[in-house]
Amino acid sequence: MLKLSHLAPSKFYLLLVLLLLILKDSTAEEITINSLFSHWNKIPNETRTFKETQFDPFLEINHSQSGSLFYKAPNLLEQHYQSPHKGSIIFTNETVKLDFPNRKIELSTENAPMASALSQTLLHLLSGNQAQLKKRFNILYTNLENRGWQLTLIPKVNLKQHIDSIIVTGNEYTINIIQFNQPSGEWRQINFN
Q1: pLDDT at residue 12, as a whole number
Q2: How much is the pLDDT for 190?
Q3: What is the pLDDT of residue 112?
Q4: Cβ(96)–Cβ(89) under 8 Å?
Q5: Each residue of 78-111: pLDDT tens digit?
Q6: In what order do the strands lie in the sheet with 45-56?
Q7: Mean pLDDT in the chain?
């Protein structure tokens, strides 16, 4: 049995504080892949600002744009770009609509596999639909320091020609970065503020 009566009061309090910190740390809810998707499944809508960077391996250049993202569960995602050009991309289960000054187009997810992959992946991720993601991806989950985590989505055979991997990182239950990597070496990263 540990005798504490011989400790000076300041050492006793220090020991007590350390024990409380250890207990608090050990009782903190562990972030798991299931708890992430369960949490995301309960979010009805969300608005966040973002900076998007795209890398072109052929030209070896990056270009960036920024704006705001609006999500409404389970099947609406709008990206509104403000800088350097104004425009929007609206994702639903059936279509992807691009509305930029020199380009307005609506793609059916049925006829455009890359648009479908992007649209469906983002919508299933944000709505916490792990079962639908598992139909298209092998999902690897990694715990990081300070309650951080990383999801790596590796496409199954039918998407490999369009997507090499999707890396999603965050902290607690918040998505901070989504990066789409293509087989060509091109990548697109969305950083949320």
Answers
A1: 53
A2: 95
A3: 80
A4: yes
A5: 999 999 999 999 999 889 999 999 999 999 888 8
A6: 103-108, 95-100, 87-92, 76-83, 61-72, 45-56, 187-192, 174-181, 165-171, 148-155, 137-144
A7: 85
Question: What pLDDT, on a 0 to 100 scale, did the predictor assign at position 9?
Answer: 56
Burial class (CB in 10 A: 0-12, 13-18, 19+), 191: middle
70 by Cβ neighbours in 10 Å (0-12 / 13-18 / 19+) ranks as middle
Residue 73 has a CB neighbour count (10 Å cut-off) of: 18
Measured distance CA(53)–CA(169) in Å, rounded:
16
In angstroms, the Cα distances linking 78 to 16, 88, 91, 109 are 50, 7, 6, 16
Instruction: Identify whether the C-beta of residue 117 lies closer than 8 Å to the C-beta of residue 133.
Output: no
CB-side exposure of 109: number of CA atoms within 13 Å?
Answer: 16
What gap in Å lies between CA 41 and CA 74, rounded to an integer?
Answer: 8
What distance in Å separates the CA atoms of residue 62 and residue 93, rounded to the nearest whole number? 30
Give the phi and the psi of residue 157 in degrees, each rounded to 5. Answer: -45, -45
Helix segments in 73-163, DSSP class H: 113-126, 130-136
User: Residue 169: is it exposed, middle or buried by C-beta count within 10 angstroms (0-12/13-18/19+)?
Assistant: middle
